[in-house]
Amino acid sequence: MSESKTLKESRKQKLMVSYGEPVGVVAAQSLGEPATQMVLRSFHTAGVSSVVTTTGLPRVIEIIDARKRVKLPIMRIRPEKSIARDYEKVKQLKQKIEEVKLNSLLDSYDEDIKAGTIKFNLSKEKLSANGLTLAHVTSRIKNNFDGIDISAESGSISVKYKSKKDVKSIRTSFVHMLNFAVAGIPGIFKAVIQQSDDKSFYIITNGSNMARVIEIDGVDKDRIYSNDIFEVLRVYGVEAARNLIASEIQKTLSEEGFGIGFRHISLVADTMTYTGTIRSIGRHGIAGDKASVLARAAYEETVKHFINASVFGERDPLKGVAENILIGKQIAVGTGRIKLAVKKEDLKKIKSNYSEK
């Protein structure tokens, strides 16, 4: 017991950070140096030929800049364990998730803008492949578009506007119908079923909509994944978003062949999220919110920061690293954090010794 306890204590000591160590600078160096060596590849197949995602340096920049719209959002959806090995049930789940637009079900369509009519000729094969019926598609159009008469017969749907409209508004309405989602979840453009090593099935999607997906019966809500950080923040909270930032940075760097200590990555993730929301590293986020005028001016937009500081009469406390380097003052890092004080009695002795000499 004593040996194991000693081993634990020694490991703990190794993990501890020395007082005054500039962890932010070390983390910035650890991430910044390999980022300059990364290949500028924008896309990666991620194991599925039809589902792509941003990788490499573009993905790191996307995360660090805290961009609210991910260029290529993806989701990994795990079915509940009771159906995870049943391909047919997972396929049914996929059909509930994947967005199906009306124009993807058509063989052809005929429109008469002057008369205000359009006829959709649906493909039986496409309807069957998506688990849909003519009645379902007709009902969806009828419930989502006002002022129309609709009828269905022999594999086609006919739509006519009741009142006369101008040509432009009729054509616009027809375009909206063609792009209308008759099934699935908005934002999930494509879904592909994949199989794990344990023979269970899961779904990979192009597009992300976690809030709607977790409402579907059969989805394992505890094992759902999205690479959209702000969506994870909205649905699962700031701690989940923090974990996603850290894991996405680590995964992206490891795919490029760089092994970086997780403590540096987790520090970046903590810094971006400790306020309860997600902030970027740049001038519109963390760097732009620093208390020091000189530190803000040293990063970007120098003149703007000096003008604002002079207008509002700001004072610089000179407590950080960047501002003290600028003015040539000792920085509060390492031994610079230590303040030495001398007792009055000792000071008198020192002065008397010097005066005797």
Which SSEs are present, and which pair or pack?
Blueprint: H1 2-15, H2 23-35, E1 43-44, E2 53-54, H3 56-64, E3 74-77, H4 87-97, E4 100-101, E5 106-112, E6 117-122, H5 124-129, H6 134-144, E7 148-153, E8 156-161, H7 167-178, E9 181-183, E10 190-195, E11 201-206, H8 210-213, E12 225-226, H9 229-236, H10 238-255, H11 262-273, H12 293-299, H13 302-312, H14 321-327, H15 344-356
Helix pairs in contact: 2-11, 3-10, 9-10, 10-11, 12-13, 12-14
Q: In words, what does this structure look like?
A:
Residues 41-49 have low confidence and may be disordered. The chain is of the alpha+beta class and 357 residues long. Helix content is 44%, strand content 15%. The radius of gyration is 31 Å and the shape is elongated. The chain has four domains: 16-71 and 227-273, PTS-regulatory domain, PRD (Orthogonal Bundle); 74-97 and 188-226; 100-183, 2-Layer Sandwich (Gyrase A, domain 2); 290-357, DNA polymerase, domain 1 (Orthogonal Bundle), CATH 1.10.150. α12 (293-299) packs across α14 (321-327). The chain starts with a helix and ends with a helix. It is built from 15 helices and twelve strands.
